[in-house]
Design a protein that fits this description.
With 366 residues, this protein is of the alpha/beta class. The chain is 34% helix and 16% strand. It has a 6-stranded antiparallel sheet. A 6-stranded parallel sheet has the order 7-6-11-10-9-8. A two-stranded antiparallel sheet has the order 2-4. Helix 6 links the parallel strand 6 and strand 7. Helix 5 crosses helix 6 and helix 9 packs parallel to helix 11.
Amino acid sequence: MKEIDLKIQGKIKRLTNKTFKFDSRVKDGWYSAVYFLKTAQIVRKYKPDSIVTMQFFQREDAVLCGIDEAIALLHTFSINPHELQIEALHDGDFISPMEPVLKVTGHYQNFGYLENLIDGILARRTSVATNVYRAVKAAEGRQIMFFGDRDDHFTNQAGDGYSAYIGGIAAQCTNAMNEWWGMEGVGTMPHALIQMFEGDLVAASKAYIETYPNDNFVALVDFNNDVITDSLKVAREFGDKLYGVRVDTSISLKDKYFDTIDYEKLGINPYGVNPELIFALRKALDDEGFNHVKIIVSSGFNEKKIKEFVEKGVPVDTFGVGKSLLRTFVSFTGDCVMLNGKELAKFGRRHIPSERLEKVDYPVNS
């Protein structure tokens, strides 16, 4: 957890403007709320010399992410960006409710139309980073793989992958997810590969190993809904070449293992990837001397389910998690809180001083 803690405390270098691929239509206000565009026109006409300070905050205990992206947005699309005064925290910082994370001072008409875009960037990135951090904490040192590629639009992968990295997950399943921080995607085999070999897991595994001999080979063992039998088949066939097995049983299915025990009498829920199945799998592998084979589980895992498995001592080496980590629950707000150096904000809001904010130069140092 030491490496994760360093990232969480904001010790990583800021990303630069070159990292991000923005839609050029941002400049035209295509993604801005129309009332911000109209306000900019009015201010340009009637109050062109006024200077405002816009302050961004949220209402959760969270892991901040999206700051570098928001700064890059400002430096790319605001008018005269070199004139803006920007103060910000770092991606990876722990933040508290109502704590300012970003302050921008300048002519409203030069940057105000970007307010909702910045809110959205911070909300999405901070939510994912915080979800990931909580899941990593629940796993208590066990690895987590980020399978966030199939539960959202593919264009979100780079930002979600970076947010997951900030939250503490380095193992991610697509190259796009690793784009902003310079790694490559990792993964196991899909069910489709086994299907192409007519359900013969050994044949599919042999083809994989021969094609990618340098991979840490992980066999997907639930295709035939007989996890223990198929795990032992590949372990016997490949021995030390088998790094691990992944169990991805659907929550609607009972593995064939439960045909052999009275699960109702024992009070066991036999559906999906459950503790009893994983305990039995670990024992079966160990009984035949395959102690080196690691167990990866996926399908329906979230912070709560990870915590339950850890508390019960279920012998899992890696959790594969996707959908639950993408839930957006943090909302950011941008408020104009100062006008021409004097505090002025809507009722209930105020300028909040912060010793943690750092001045950001233009351009961001690479």
